[in-house]
Amino acid sequence: MSIGKTILAEVLQEAASTRKLLAVVPIDQADFKPHEKSMSLRRLATHVTEITGWWKECLVHDELDFSVGDFTPKQLNTTEELLAMHDDLVAKATTILNEIADEEFGKMWTMRNGEQVYFTMPKLAVTRTWCLNHLYHHRGQLTVYLRLLNVPLPGMYGPTADDAQGM
After folding, report:
1. The domain at 3-166 falls in which architecture?
2. What are the residue boundaries of the structural domains of the chain, listed by start?
3. How confident is the model at residue 163 (pLDDT cuts 50, 70, 90)?
4. What is the 3-state secondary structure (H, E, C) of the chain?
C-alpha cells in the first residue's frame, strides 16, 4: 500500500470524528472566547475545518511562503457552512492522498515568510506535524470551548461523559 493511502486511512477516520465535533458547534455563540488571548469559537471551528485543506499546500507544493498571496480566513456563519467546507476539503485530501507518489513524501518542504525560514523538513514529517497533529491539537481546544459552553461532546474514541452509555 502506498504512503498516501496509508495516511488516508487515518485522515478519513479522524475526519469522521472532526465532523461530529463541528456538528455540535453552537454558532450562535461564535464570539465566545475563554480568555482574551484565545481565538473566538467561530475562528477556532473554522481553523479546525481549514486544516483539512492543508494537504495541497504540504504535498503538492514544496513550500508555503506567507509573504506571497493574500490569505483571508473564511467567515463561516452556520454549522452547515462548517460541515460543507469540511466535507469538501476531506474530498480534496482524499484525491491528493490517493494520487500522490511515495517519492513526494521524501522531498523537503519549507515554511517561510519571505526571507525568514521557519523550518524545512521532509514532507512525510510535515504531514504528521502540520496536517494531522496540528488538527488534533486544535480539535482538543475546541472540545474545551464546547465543554465550557455546556455543549455535550460527541464520542470520538468511544463514549464521552455526555453519552448515556458512557456512565
Report:
1. Up-down Bundle (1.20)
2. 3-166
3. confident
4. CCHHHHHHHHHHHHHHHHHHHHCCCCHHHCCCCCCCCCCCHHHHHHHHHHHCCHHHHHHHCCEEECCCCCCCCCCCCCHHHHHHHHHHHHHHHHHHHHHCCHHHHHCEEEEEECCEEEEEEEHHHHHHHHHHHHHHHHHHHHHHHHHHCCCCCCCCCCCCCCCHHHC
